[in-house]
Structure formats: C-alpha cells, structure tokens
Amino acid sequence: MRFATLALTLTVALGVSGCSRFGSDSGLNPLGWFRSGSSQPTTLEPRGGWVTQDQDYRPLVPQILSAGFEPINEGKLLIVTGFAPVKGWYDLEIKTERVQPAKQLRPDDDGILRLVLVGSPPLPGSPAAAMRANPQVDRLNVALPISNVQLLRLRGIEVRSATGGVSLRP
C-alpha cells in the first residue's frame, strides 16, 4: 500500500513539474510530446535590425574654424564653429568616432576623446546649394555638453572635419 501511494505521488509530481513554466521546453512536458517542428525563439529585434550609429550617412563638415569651452553648471559646453562653402547645411551634430552607448562619451585607451563634426549638405539643385557662403556670416555652430564626471576621464579632445581638425585640453 505504501509503495502504491509513493508511486502515485511521484508520478503526479513528475507530471506537474513537466507542465510548469520553467520546464515547458523539457521533454517531460506532455503537451510538447506530439508537436512537430522546432519553435523559433522570439526576439525584440526589429525586422530591419537595430539602427546603429555607423549607419549615419551624413558627411563631415568641410572645415572647422574654431573650438572652445564655455562653463556650465554641470561641466563644460564644447562649442565648435565650422564652415561650408555653400549655404544650407542642416542637421549638424558632434559625434564620437567610435560607436558608443547613447549619451556616453568614453575616451580611447590613450585618454583622448575623438569626435567628428557631421551635417547634411543642401540638396543638389536647390537654391541653397547654388549660394556661396560668406565665412564672416555663414558659420555653422554646434555645441556638446560634457559633464564634470566625463571631463575627469579625458586627457584631451580631438574634433575632426573633412579637411582637418582641432585639439583641445579640458
């Protein structure tokens, strides 16, 4: 009698554990015994894949005129002034050369933060693409805030454009 009770208890326990949430993909789950084919794992990745920073097709701004720092409460504001030979450049940004997590500025192994100045030129054939820019008036100003914590990790900052660049010490 004790053997029958023990066998029944073990059979029920094994059946229940095979149907549990954590053991649902095991061979002990009787609901999966008659399923054919393999189930595909579910993912949160979009169909076209994740958009990464290196898929940015904006070209480098042709020239950097100046770069400097302005103090702010949480650190410093890096201000870069660029120049393009034609008017109408838009969507300007200072980006890191290496792909990094969003809103993080990590220097390379030598302590130098390498940045690039990118933007979108005017569309070919547009009126802005035919207008020559004046270096005294048509400057491209872009700013990047750098916190005090990020500044402590930096030995220097290099900002690159299409024809050159500038180096700064924080």
Automatic annotation (TrEMBL):
Superkingdom is: Bacteria
What name has this protein been given in UniProt? Lipoprotein
Q: Which organism is it from?
A: Paracoccus jeotgali
